[in-house]
């Protein structure tokens, strides 16, 4: 099993399927500390992304698939998450251009580029109770796995596990970016919806490996 173009296609199909099922739960997380639309935003975005990816006849690299995903997300997801996820996928695409099969190192490069893109675009950093708290640890875990000589698949599992832990660890945090920051201290005690959706997306990437 390799992280190739077919994997990237399966990833996006799997992400779209996951988000149909998780839509209400993500809306609920966003209802607690935002405006309740995160599940519906991402569901719409990933259905559009999956449609465009299936219509993409001639992709020969994961980067080409991710580029189409980025443009679908930017054009169909309103609010904060559209441009942030669009930037994440666009940066991951650009950082891996021309690579038909990702090594652990390529994965680390992709996730680091995505994490940096989100932080730049959002003018935000880790610890602010945003999707940075999932992307950042995922990038670090992939880099550590790559440095330790692990396979691409093991690096991906490590990244998804780190994103999951990062999303859960947003619960006690007070939000200082995005809509949740309007609540101040009252944002504590709830999981950040964007960190949770990032964990779901990386879990879908793992499922797509097999
Ligand atoms: P909106 O808040 O515009 O309705 P969504 O509900 O789709 O957009 O997305 C909200 C998520 O976006 C938050 O849970 C958070 O993870 C993420 N987010 C919001 N602002 C920022 C930011 N400045 N930096 C990083 N992530 C952010
Ligand atoms: Mg919202
Ligand atoms: Mg909104």
Automatic annotation (TrEMBL):
<dbReference type="InterPro" id="IPR050861">
    <property type="entry name" value="Dihydroxyacetone_Kinase"/>
</dbReference>
<dbReference type="GO" id="GO:0005829">
    <property type="term" value="C:cytosol"/>
</dbReference>
<dbReference type="GO" id="GO:0019563">
    <property type="term" value="P:glycerol catabolic process"/>
</dbReference>
<feature type="domain" description="DhaL">
    <location>
        <begin position="6"/>
        <end position="207"/>
    </location>
</feature>
<dbReference type="GO" id="GO:0004371">
    <property type="term" value="F:glycerone kinase activity"/>
</dbReference>
<keyword id="KW-0808">Transferase</keyword>
<keyword id="KW-0418">Kinase</keyword>
<dbReference type="InterPro" id="IPR036117">
    <property type="entry name" value="DhaL_dom_sf"/>
</dbReference>
<dbReference type="Pfam" id="PF02734">
    <property type="entry name" value="Dak2"/>
</dbReference>
<dbReference type="InterPro" id="IPR012737">
    <property type="entry name" value="DhaK_L_YcgS"/>
</dbReference>
<protein>
    <submittedName>
        <fullName>Phosphoenolpyruvate-dihydroxyacetone phosphotransferase, ADP-binding subunit DhaL</fullName>
        <ecNumber>2.7.1.121</ecNumber>
    </submittedName>
</protein>
<keyword id="KW-0670">Pyruvate</keyword>
<dbReference type="InterPro" id="IPR004007">
    <property type="entry name" value="DhaL_dom"/>
</dbReference>
<dbReference type="GO" id="GO:0047324">
    <property type="term" value="F:phosphoenolpyruvate-glycerone phosphotransferase activity"/>
</dbReference>
């Amino acid at each position: 099993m390799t992280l190739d173009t077919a994997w990237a296609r399966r990833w996006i199909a799997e992400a779209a399927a996951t988000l149909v099922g998780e839509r209400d739960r993500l809306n609920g997380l966003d209802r607690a500390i935002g405006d309740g639309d995160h599940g519906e935003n991402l569901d719409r975005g990933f259905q559009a992304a999956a449609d465009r990816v299936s219509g993409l006849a001639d992709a020969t690299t994961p980067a080409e698939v991710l580029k189409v995903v980025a443009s679908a997300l930017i054009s169909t997801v309103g609010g904060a998450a559209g441009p942030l996820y669009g930037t994440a996928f666009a940066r991951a695409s650009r950082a891996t251009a021309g690579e038909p099969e990702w090594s652990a190192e390529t994965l680390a490069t992709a996730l680091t580029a995505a994490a940096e893109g989100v932080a730049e675009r959002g003018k935000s950093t880790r610890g602010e109770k945003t999707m940075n708290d999932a992307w950042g640890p995922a990038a670090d875990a992939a880099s550590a796995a790559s440095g330790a000589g692990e396979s691409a698949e093991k690096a991906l599992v490590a990244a998804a596990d780190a994103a999951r832990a990062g999303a859960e660890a947003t619960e006690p945090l007070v939000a200082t970016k995005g809509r949740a920051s309007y609540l101040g201290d009252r944002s504590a005690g709830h999981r950040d919806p964007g960190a949770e959706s990032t964990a779901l997306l990386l879990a879908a990437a793992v499922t797509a490996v097999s």
